[in-house]
Design a protein that fits this description.
The chain is of the alpha/beta class. The chain contains 13 helices and 13 strands. Helix 6 links the parallel strand 4 and strand 5. The chain binds pyridoxal-5'-phosphate (PLP).
Length: about 400
Amino acid sequence: MGDRLAIDGGTPVRRGMLPYGRHDVDETDVAAVVAALRADWITSGPRVAEFEEALARLAGVPHAVAVSSGTAALHTALFSAAIGPGDEVVVPPLTFAATANAVLYQGGTPVFADVRPDTLNLDTAAAAAAVTPRTRAIIGVDYAGQPGDLDALRELGRTRGLCVIEDAAHALGATYRGRPVGADADLAVFSFHPVKHATTGEGGAVMASDAGLAERARRFRNHGIASTPAERRDWRYDMVDLGFNYRLTDLQCALGLSQLTRLPRALARREAIAARYRAAFADLAGLTLPAVAPDVRHAWHIFPVLLDLERLRADRGAVFAALRAEGIGVNVHYIPVYWHPYYSERGYRRGLCPVAERAYERLVTLPLFPAMTDGDADDVVTAVAKVLGHYAR
Ligand SMILES: *Cc1c(COP(=O)(O)O)cnc(C)c1O
């Protein structure tokens, strides 16, 4: 029987697993890295500055500081914002742990505020309610690639005197009310991990409109040293902050520059696959799609769906296992950060953010990456319809 689930011994929709995300490296990327290898600089050379200029142009901000990962970029942003012990930073729980961890790196305290049930982005009202006299910053996360309520966050930041940081690791190339992501926050952060929109292997960047914040970020990336070798007249230099070695190499920036030339195409392809899914799933029982606000361009880093568990005879774990058995490499984004043992052992309790927790129990991320074919996407649709049809009440 064609309809018997693969997990019950039926024929899978696909042989081999379609991953949920995958990098896209072509021969021009390879040539760019090889050319960098043959040049005079292996690290901290002209390609770093070029990559930073390209990122600043893309995000519509005057300053970009390239660093060794998105996590390093978050840490750098929190340092730039002068977050320290005793300071509270409001963060959403439906994100990668690094968002909140970066607050801990600086000795600050992450305070979790719930997400909106429709978009799963930080709920500005919940963020406002979480602000105390000790709050110094708010980090918004552009969940799945959709910009959050940036005007509302900025207004909250302005009225309460808080630094607004945007974790835009999902949202390179997205726009909010016509403005590129990165320009609306005091500091914004990108990641160039292989599953993200453009990769440098590992890499990240901090975007800043304020020259002082950018200068602090630049120093922090290089041990807190106040000058670059080119600026020095002799051996002397001053280490003025306790920084790190968070530098990104010229080799990586050569790859990043080459990748950025294909970003418009990659975004268009992600949009096309998302549109195909949205059309196919619009009337499918058992599944709800997160809302897309009318005033954004969604960057579609991932394609999460919410299972209507009330209409299914299975929980998320069973649906997940059944889809994997069909050859669909589903994933889940995210376990609420404070559910992780490191956080629960430090006093964060379940129940803190009920909307995020309820969403987590129902979330499944479907495969979405530019190199996917329409046939791959159709396999995903077939497998989802097959599994949800089987488990329908
Ligand atoms: C990927 C990601 C990060 C971390 O980026 P790395 O480059 O992997 O260190 C941080 N926040 C979010 C939301 C991410 O998706």
